[in-house]
Amino acid sequence: MKRLIIGPAWVGDMVMAQALARRLRRLDRAGSVHMMAPAATFPLIAHMPEIDRGWLLDIAHGRLHLHKRWQLAGSLRSERFDEAIILPRSFKSALVPFLAGIPRRVGMIGEMRYGLINVALPAASANRRTVDEFVRFAGASDLAEDERPRLRAGHEATASIARLDLHNDRKLVVLCPGAEYGPAKRWPAYHFAGLAGLLAQRGIASIIVGGAKERALGQEITAGLEPGLVHDLTGQTTLAEVIGLLARADVVVSNDSGLMHIAAALDRPLIALFGSSSPERTPPLSPHAHILSTDISCRPCFKRDCPLGHTDCLVKLDVARVAAAVLDRLA
Fold first, then answer.
1. 127-158 residue pLDDT tens
2. 54, β-bridge pairs
3. Residue 155: half-sphere exposure toward Cβ, Cα within 13 Å
């Protein structure tokens, strides 16, 4: 069977979607799996060996652009797909498979898209992990351990590493201070600065990574630190280069974010920091991940911004505790 997966727009969800592709490959080794994704997550497809071909949905997030969707659907018609699996629950995400005439279009019940999908799964449960909801599309009730996401690293980070003069014999910690969802998932920048300073005192290099939106965070973290062992690359790398840097890391420290899921899928030693969200819902899927959080009564609230205005769930996750976890994994 020839299948097209419509991938998510969030990096973390896109990583978890690889588990579905791995499951489909196991069920139908002679079949073919393609994936379509927007620009924000499309580069991940190149790191998923289970995907035969990627299709770029070159439309800004939230925009309809019906003409562009019609053009893309026209390109897909000649592929003669048997099935489309539509992971996002929006109306727009179901349009291209419908316009392409793909006969079986599977998706969760969502934004008034009856007819656009013709095989409807019940809406996702708030009590189940996102990855388990994804593998439901392949008939599995839960994720099998040997089907968890496993990204393949490339060599895109070579130039960035060379530019920073990072020696292979020096320990490297990669810091991921961003979280696209909102501030209630971000460990404070001054805590990241404290951690980077402690590591630098021990001769351990750290790199700060993130997109253009994290530039202010990177600058805040490095503002009071001596240059040399702390390198801010926020907004200066492609997603593919960040994947390469994460693959090079001896330890990754990350908020609950897309980069956390990438690090987990690369099997890097990972310190995952949880604030308003819960590892019961979106855990890092790796035996090498160590989750840190506080036990204050108001978490998890799943809010973008702290409704109480203090973000104590992350403020009270102190630097010494995180540093101890990092140093333990570097030992």
1. 889 999 999 999 888 888 889 999 998 777 66
2. 35
3. 1
Condensed to tens digits (0 to 9), the pLDDT of residues 93-124 reads 999 999 999 999 999 987 778 889 999 998 87
Q: Peptide bond before 38: cis, by omega within 30 degrees of 0?
A: no
pTM of the predicted model, to two decimals?
A: 0.94
Residue burial 295-305, b: 16+ Cβ < 10 Å; e: rest: eeeebbbebee
Query: SS3 letters for 110-176?
Result: CCCCECCECEEECCCCCCCCHHHHHHHHHCCCCCCHHHCCCCCCCCCCHHHHHHHCCCCCCCEEEEE
Of 328, 248, 58, the residue nearest 233 (C-alpha):
248
Q: How many separate domains does the chain show?
A: 2
Whose CA is closest to 257, among 210, 314, 305, 196?
210
Helices of type H across the chain: 11-27, 66-77, 95-99, 130-135, 158-164, 189-201, 215-222, 239-248, 258-265, 312-315, 319-330
Cα 38–chain centre separation: 14
Q: Could you list the residue range(s) of the whole structural domain that residue 97 is in?
A: 2-147
Tracing tokens 């253009």 back to the chain, one arrives at: 212
189 and 267 in a common domain: yes
Q: Find the radius of gyration of the CA atoms of the chain.
A: 20
* Cα distance from N-terminal residue to C-terminal residue, the chain: 48
